[in-house]
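User: Could you go from structure to sequence for me? I need the amino acid at each position, not a summary. Structure tokens:
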């Protein structure tokens, strides 16, 4: 990270272009008839985010591997229901709408021509890239994502918050530790323990049977963290119901590996990239060609005007 001072904005790019795809009609097409609703929607999202939050640095974080094998080896059900095809070498193929897949290379090309840093690292998810940038940041960090897993990075002391889109990106939930404590009864550091205890069907995480969100929050309030809860299982004087004690004890194999799966990595080998918010396009010729070929129109022009401003 080259001289990252000031406010850093990290985009969970796939989360945002999925939202753009479903939020904008497929009738938004290029001159050749190819749908570009995700492309144009993402450009409009970035335009609004830059206008509203004025970051000094911006990184589009990518899923180089949306289902890393090292996570699957620990919990085989991890994201298994989203696999379209398994591959011997490289990431498994994820189920993605037919008209979205062709738009991803266009998104990547446009971001590169604009000069917006785009970072994905082999064998890691975008969450891990975000976690590592956050750990290394010297100033405040805004994480823009529709994935609640990243709540675990919220840290008021370090000015790390999550901007969670409620409707597009014009309506964002500004997630800080006060909001987390009111909603879930935990702070950022406690959210990962809550998530693994509760489980998450959307990620194929089974959780502990009988332990939902409220019970997980109560256990963490009583015993502090996962280690404290497991110590309580071994302590006959600890305030656990017989059913809770039994279920937690039976879930030890899962609880032994779940933290590594659920917690985002903070030690990803990041490439050396210039994260500064671009004021002018890195490659204006390429960008003009992409704009004409894919009919990016006002979506791109508005973003360019915002970047210059």
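Assistant: Here is the amino acid at each position, in order:
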């Amino acid at each position: 990270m080259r001289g990252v001072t000031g406010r850093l904005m990290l985009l969970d790019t796939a989360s945002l272009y999925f939202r753009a795809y479903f939020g904008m009609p497929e009738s938004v097409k290029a001159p050749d008839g190819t749908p570009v609703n995700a492309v144009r929607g993402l450009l409009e999202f970035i335009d609004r985010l830059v206008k509203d939050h004025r970051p000094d640095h911006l990184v589009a974080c990518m899923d180089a591997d949306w289902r890393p094998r090292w996570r699957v080896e620990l919990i085989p059900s991890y994201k298994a229901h989203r696999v379209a095809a398994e591959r011997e070498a490289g990431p498994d193929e994820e189920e993605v709408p037919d008209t979205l897949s062709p738009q991803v290379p266009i998104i990547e090309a446009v971001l590169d021509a604009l000069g917006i840093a785009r970072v994905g690292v082999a064998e890691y998810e975008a969450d891990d890239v975000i976690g590592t940038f956050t750990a290394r940041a010297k100033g405040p960090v805004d994480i823009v994502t529709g994935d609640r897993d990243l709540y675990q990075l919220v840290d008021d002391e370090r000015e790390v918050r999550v901007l969670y889109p409620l409707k597009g990106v014009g309506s964002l939930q500004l997630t800080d530790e006060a909001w987390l404590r009111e909603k879930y009864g935990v702070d950022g550091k406690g959210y990962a323990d809550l998530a693994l205890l509760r489980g998450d069907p959307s990620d194929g995480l089974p959780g502990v049977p009988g332990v939902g969100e409220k019970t997980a929050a109560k256990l963490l309030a009583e015993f502090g963290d996962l280690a404290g809860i497991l110590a309580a299982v071994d302590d006959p004087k600890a305030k656990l119901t017989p059913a809770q004690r039994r279920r937690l004890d039976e879930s030890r194999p899962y609880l032994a590996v779940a933290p590594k799966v659920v917690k985002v990595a903070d030690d990803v080998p990041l490439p050396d990239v210039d994260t500064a918010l671009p004021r002018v396009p890195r490659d204006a010729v390429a960008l003009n060609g992409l704009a004409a070929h894919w009919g990016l129109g006002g979506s791109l022009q508005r973003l360019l005007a915002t970047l210059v401003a």
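One structural detail worth keeping in mind: The first helix runs from residue 13 to 23.
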